[in-house]
Design goal:
The complex is a heterodimer.
Chain A (H helix, E strand, L loop, with lengths): L1 E5 L5 H25 L4 H9 L1 H4 L3 H27 L7 H18 L8 H27 L3 H21 L35 H19 L1 H11 L1 H6 L4 H25 L13 H11 L4 H25 L3 H18 L1 H4 E5 H8 L1
Antiparallel strand pairs in A: 1-2
Helix pairs in contact in A: 1-2, 1-14, 2-13, 4-8, 4-9, 4-11, 4-12, 4-13, 5-6, 5-7, 5-11, 5-12, 6-7, 6-11, 8-9, 8-11, 8-13, 12-13
Chain B lengths: L1 H22 L5 E6 L9 H16 L3 E6 L6 H12 L4 E4 L5 H10 L4 E5 L8 E6 L1 H15 L4 E6 L4 H17 L4 E6 L6 H13 L4 E4 L5 H9 L3 E6 L10 E7 L2 H13 L6 E4 L6 E4 L7 H16 L9 E2 L5 E3 L7 H5 L15
Helix pairs in contact in B: 2-9, 3-4, 5-6, 5-10, 7-8
The chains are: A mainly alpha, B alpha/beta.
């Protein structure tokens, strides 16, 4: 009947077409799912995709897209560099936590002093925190050849324990009546990552995400290092012959992705979240992996994918509240998105042919 | 910069205000619930959702309830609350400690919406706080545990070393010790409220160390399942009755019953009598319930536990009554003296006799 034929080159057209196709398929099958759950499918899909952007309260949701999407984009950009070179940092969640701990810790060390240099110090501390945490799997891989997937993932759980310990010990709010959690940085002007223009959702973390998109684009397209990254991913042997140092590349990719994840954590703790608490991390580091792939590991793609993912989160919450959809259905819906993306990916690398027509061609 | 900021804030506030007015045109009172876990967790969130259903049952067509489950603490919670307020909610219950600062932030933007935050301590003109005196239930639990243990080792699965959990450990220990001077507590910190795998591991560790009674301050039924697997071990339902284990290890339970409070507060909004309050109710008001004590517990122990429950409910007895010393041997309460709510709310020490340190 049908036959799959490998394309000599991945199709340019399908590379661009598959993400929207995946979104469309998710809408159709997601709508079916919601329908089976007894909800009006069209209304549910409209609530998720339309209401946050153009609904009655869009003036509130549009800025929230940036707040939710900013950290996803920032982390995913970092991850995409490594993923392109075949270096798999799965532990961005841990680096995100460490960035927040380092950043908040640096800020709170100055409390209650007010000074203009406190926030920049926090930014640097956050980046260092994430970079150091990602540096562990990098160092172990370079030195002992360990698997960075396992090491970086395991370090997420170590970071979570450290986060709990910080919330209950070192960084605990002395005025918090013994409850866990640090002081709220939103109430500490020098450390607060506030909205730059009220009502826009733009905070420094979102700005950093946009800068990261631009830099990563330049790096990958105009810079020798970017070329090495792409070459290593696409043709490792060729990369070796052309003198790319694998060790240097591992350190760079893991270090950069760690630093960006750390920055995301730092901007989040100083801004929207406000404080170090036991449950501070909410899975941005893992969701960013989906965002990176949804965005085809391309900077602009990641930017769009991050916003799309944010849209499904925010729209999903509205659907829960207004239509009574269960949270699990929303998570399933988000899972579908990745599933369909991977499925239609087939079209990029393969051609579907009718077996009979092919025979004709041969004859 | 400054002026544009003020202007945009004003514009936003105006937008939100008109949105609220537009939303509140409907006759129905709209009540929102923000949950930290899934409604099917069988414990904490399950009981809050039962409270929501009770509000619907009580007021029928006059209310509309909405909820969002598994909402992470922090910025996401703030967005969910704002979303509910924008859509015309009159009253919003935020049911996790970590929602404290987000609740205060959102409440400041919506002065006409009432907020109720569970287990926190920050109030405002339109923010109440409420919690339950779970330690009263722990006293009953400790009594049963102290009588029932044969190994004299009682295992305790702590979630996080915060005042609420430490209060429960102290209360259970004091009352177990009272009926069984040889009793010792082994405490494992799971650092989670809800993680069946971790909770099961914690229970297994405690059972291996000789505990034949498991008390838990985590929300899943996994410790009871582990107790059932081990055989001769008993446990208690936590937050919810967990009656499905009543034929097995579960001998009683502490039930969070939020329904009366939720109904009362909703009615207050309807009547226009709502004011900001700080509620901390216990067995007497029905916020803390003691699940049925099964026949696995001998009749005399059952009678003793029931009597204790009744004396707490009537106000004759306070679970923290002196003489009591702190773990380090220093005096805390003189004979006959009872603990004040301030000390209890911020409790960060063990009473004398408990081994080990509070982590953190």
């Amino acid at each position: 009947m049908f036959k799959l034929e490998k394309r000599p080159q991945p199709s340019k057209m399908w590379t661009l077409l598959t993400p929207p196709l995946a979104v469309l398929a998710t809408m159709i099958f997601g709508g079916l799912l919601f329908g089976l759950l007894g909800n009006p499918p069209v209304e549910a899909i409209r609530t998720i995709f339309w209401d946050p952007l153009f609904g009655e309260f869009a003036f509130y949701y549009r800025p929230q897209l940036l707040v939710k999407g900013g950290p996803l984009i920032l982390i995913a950009i970092g991850l995409s560099l490594g993923f392109r070179a075949g270096i798999w940092n799965i532990g961005a969640e841990g680096q995100y936590i460490m960035g927040a701990i380092f950043g908040a810790g640096a800020g709170l060390a100055f409390y209650p002093m007010e000074a203009f240099y406190i926030f920049p110090i926090m930014v640097i501390a956050g980046a260092i925190g994430g970079m150091l945490w990602a540096g562990i799997p990098a160092f172990l891989k370079v030195k002992f050849g360990t698997n960075e997937i396992l090491v970086s993932l395991m370090l997420v759980y170590v970071a979570e324990q450290l986060l709990a310990s910080m919330s209950l010990g070192l960084l605990k709010n002395p005025d918090g009546f013994g409850f866990p959690g640090s002081r709220n940085l939103q109430q500490y002007a020098s450390a607060h990552n506030a909205e730059l223009i009220t009502g826009t959702g733009m905070h420094w973390g979102v700005v950093a995400a946009f800068i990261a998109v631009i830099f990563s684009y330049i790096l990958l397209n105009r810079h020798m290092l970017g070329f090495s990254i792409r070459l290593t991913g696409e043709a490792p042997r060729a990369a070796k012959f052309s003198g790319v140092s694998p060790a240097r590349l591992i350190l760079f990719c893991l270090g950069t992705s760690g630093a960006l994840a750390g920055l995301a954590g730092m901007f989040e703790v100083a801004g929207p979240a406000g404080q170090i608490s036991i449950d501070f991390n909410t899975g941005y580091g893992f969701t960013a992996i989906i965002v990176a792939f949804l965005g085809r590991l391309h900077p602009v793609g990641i930017l769009l994918a991050g916003l799309l993912m944010a849209l499904t989160y925010i729209g999903g919450e509205i659907a829960q509240s207004n239509l009574g959809l269960p949270a699990a259905a929303i998570q399933l819906f988000q899972g579908m998105l990745l599933f369909f993306l991977l499925a239609v990916d087939l079209l990029t690398n393969f051609r579907i042919r009718l077996a009979s027509s092919r025979r004709k061609g041969v004859a | 910069m400054k002026i544009t900021k003020i202007l945009t804030t004003a514009a936003l506030a105006l937008g939100m205000a008109t949105a609220v007015i537009a939303g509140s045109h409907s006759e129905k009172t709209k009540v929102g619930f923000v949950y930290v876990g899934p409604v099917g967790d069988g414990g904490w969130t399950f009981e809050h959702n039962n409270g929501r259903l009770a509000v619907e049952a009580e007021f029928g067509d006059k209310v509309e309830t909405v909820f969002v489950e598994s909402v992470p603490e922090g910025a996401d919670a703030e967005r969910v609350m704002t979303q509910m307020a924008l859509n015309g909610a009159d009253l919003i219950f935020t049911t996790s400690f970590g929602y404290m600062d987000p609740t205060i932030n959102v409440a400041a933007k919506f002065p006409n919406v009432r907020f109720e935050h569970a287990t926190g301590y920050k109030t405002a003109d339109n923010v109440s706080v409420y919690s339950a005196r779970f330690y009263e239930g722990r006293a009953v639990q400790g009594t049963i545990a102290g009588r029932m243990t044969e190994s004299n080792i009682i295992g305790y699965i702590g979630s996080f070393p915060i005042p609420e959990v430490i209060r429960g450990i102290n209360s259970a220990y004091i009352h177990a010790k009272k009926v069984n001077p040889d009793v010792t507590f082994k405490i494992v910190w799971a650092y989670t409220w809800f993680d069946p795998a971790k909770e099961a591991d914690a229970a297994k560790v405690l059972i291996e160390q000789g505990a034949d009674v498991i008390l838990q301050h985590t929300d899943s039924t996994a410790p009871l399942a582990a107790a059932a697997a081990a055989g001769n071990v008993i446990g208690f339902g936590q937050a919810s009755d967990m009656a499905e284990f009543a034929d097995g290890p579960r001998v009683s339970s502490i039930i969070d019953n939020w329904a009366p409070y939720y109904i009362e507060r909703t009615r207050a909004v309807m009547d226009g009598t709502w004011t900001s309050v700080n509620t901390w109710d216990g067995i007497a008001q029905g916020m803390v319930g003691i699940g049925e004590i099964t026949d696995r517990v001998p009749a005399d122990v059952k009678a003793e536990a029931t009597a204790l429950k009744d004396s707490i409910a009537s106000g004759d007895y306070h679970p923290f009554t002196g003489p009591l010393k702190k773990q380090d041997g220093s005096d805390w309460l003189a004979a006959g003296e009872t603990a004040d709510d301030g000390t209890l709310a911020g409790m960060n020490f063990y009473v004398e006799g408990i081994e080990g340190d509070i982590p953190g």
